[in-house]
Amino acid sequence: MHEFEIQKKFAEACRTGKLDDLNVDKERLQLYTEIIAINVEDALVNAFPILNTILPEEVWEKVVRDFMKEKLTTPYLWQLPEEFMEYILKSKWKNALDIPFLEDLLMYEWLELELFYRNEVEDEKVFNWNQSFDLNTNVEIINFKYPVHKINLYDYDEMVGLKGSYPLILYRNLETNEIEYIEITPFLYEVIGLIIQGKTPLEAVEEIASKYQIDYMEVLEPLEQFFKKLTAKKILI
Amino acid sequence: MIKDAGLGLRRSFLYDIYDYDIKPNWFEIAPENWIKRGGPILKQFEKIRSDFPIACHGLSLSIGSPDPLDFKFLEELKQFLDYYQIDIYSEHLSFSMEGGKRFYDLLPLPFTKNMAEFVSEKIMQVQDYLKRPLILENISYYLTLEEEISELEFINYILEKTGAYLLLDVNNVYVNAVNHGYDPKDFIKNIKLDRVKYMHIAGHLDYKEDLLVDTHGEKVKDDVWDLLEFTLDLTGNVPVLLERDNNIPPYQEILEEYKKLESIIKKVQEKHARI
Ligand SMILES: [Fe+2]
């Protein structure tokens, strides 16, 4: 059907912003290309405001334009930022952008948005050393290489210099609905990792304590306070 | 059941609607904004759903794409409509995807017999799958890609062939009439008014003298209110929805426009009751 060819050319012009292939009023064609680019860009700036300010405007626009040419497959506009994140990390842009903390930043900005829309399990569990627990569905546990969750405290070079290990619990506070984080130690990150895999808190602490050459009996009491806080906030359920 | 005036539900006033005595009769939502979402916002939506009739007005079906239908999306859509027991599902007579890549905007179709035939087949597939009639909106557009038949003939042919209903967007008729140089009243008189399930009214932007842009970000223009009254006079009692998607003012201001819509509907109803 020759109509498909017209549609394809029109679509291509909308994606690329190049107007020459189609025999129509260029000004009106340009209106389409602008409206479409603005829609996509608004969604991405809204999701990644920090990345947007870090990148020079012309770079940002190139990335977005490439993304428009190659992706935009989800039927849900709210999912587009996630597609953008995956696109950047799998394309030449990952290296070309040359931001050491790019991956962490993308993930942090996306989760800040996405966690707000997650359902949670509402029942609270009482903490017990010998029971199994899980992370609630409104929670992510994550180990950043850069402290992107505190990006407003540092300038670019400082952030690059802070390369290390920054384990966090990132969650939607069920009382305020704000997205919050709890910084945890690498030790606790590993303990919680084992708990999620099905070990009881006691088993998990024993295993990781021996790895860190700590006497686990000595840490049980402060850890119990911490775990009770997590169950009270329904982070562990 | 949707009846009389309704309002497009927006995030910005999701928590305001219970604070005012005037309450819209029904709301319209874009299902794409709610499918696979959760958290506090969805809880509020569910409360509203339990208190008001809801119509779904989709964005991503892309019925006129050269692409095959996206059945994964259709499955998620059907689940959503079934779960919230929503019977009214409208979409746009346009395309918004090509080669699997989307635009999140509505692009016009070439107005040809082949295209009308092709779109009709897809509409019937969707109706079959969703077990609901499709309600198709006349979009606003700035470019005519091809015009073997007129837009009017194109729409009427598809409605006739598929049994689908029409969501008549009065503002879009007005915008297109200016942009493509035809008489909006003629268009309305000649479109299949017996297939109109409901109507839309919205604002547009005067971009240039001969080019209006359908922004849904302005107040409804007086000429468009007049055209609505003209249309209601012909259709009789058909529900009308006020759309405001961008540049959204405080809820109280939207309610003022909503009240204006109600008064126009009422005026026409009273007139019809007398004759
Ligand atoms: Fe509309």
Can you describe what's shown?
The complex is a heterodimer of chains A (237) and B (275). With 237 residues, chain A is mainly α. Chain A has two domains: 98 residues, no CATH class; 118 residues, Outer Surface Protein A, domain 3 (Alpha-Beta Complex), CATH 3.90.930.50. Chain A contains eleven helices and three strands. Chain A has a three-stranded antiparallel β-sheet with strand order 1-2-3, sandwiched between helices. In chain A, a hairpin with a 6-residue loop joins strand 2 and strand 3. In chain A, helix 5 packs antiparallel against helix 7 and helix 9 crosses helix 10. The longest helix of chain A has 22 residues. The model of chain A has no long low-confidence stretch (mean pLDDT 95). With 275 residues, chain B is α/β, with parallel strands linked by helices. Chain B has eight helices and twelve strands. In chain B, helix 6 runs parallel beside helix 7 and helix 7 runs parallel beside helix 8. The radius of gyration of chain B is 18 Å and the shape is globular. The mean pLDDT of chain B is 96. Chains A and B meet through helix 1 and helix 2 of A and helix 1, strand 6 and helix 3 of B. Bound molecules: fe (ii) ion (FE2). Fe (ii) ion (FE2) binds next to loops of chain B.
Q: Can you name the CATH architecture of chain B?
A: Alpha-Beta Barrel
**Which value, in Å, is the CA radius of gyration of chain B?**
18 Å
Distance between the termini of chain A: 57 Å
Q: Mean pLDDT of chain A, rounded to whole units? A: 95
Q: Which residues of chain A form runs of ≥5 with pLDDT under 50? A: none
Strand content of chain A: 5-15%
Radius of gyration of chain A: 23 Å
CATH evolutionary superfamily of chain B: Divalent-metal-dependent TIM barrel enzymes
Q: Please tell me the overall pLDDT of chain B.
A: 96
Task: Name the chain pair whose interface involves the most residues.
Answer: A-B, 39 and 41 residues
- CATH topology assignment of the largest domain in chain A: Outer Surface Protein A, domain 3
The CATH class of the largest domain in chain A, by name, is: Alpha Beta
The helix/strand order of chain B is EEHEHEEEHEHEHHEEEHEH
Characterize the main sheet of chain B.
8 strands, parallel, barrel
Oligomer: heterodimer
What is the N-to-C succession of helices and strands of chain A? HHHHHHHEHEEHHH
Structural class per helix/strand content of chain B? alpha/beta
At the first level of CATH, the class of chain B is Alpha Beta
Main pleated sheet of chain A: 3 strands, antiparallel
> Span from first to last CA of chain B?
26 Å
Number of E strands of chain B: 12
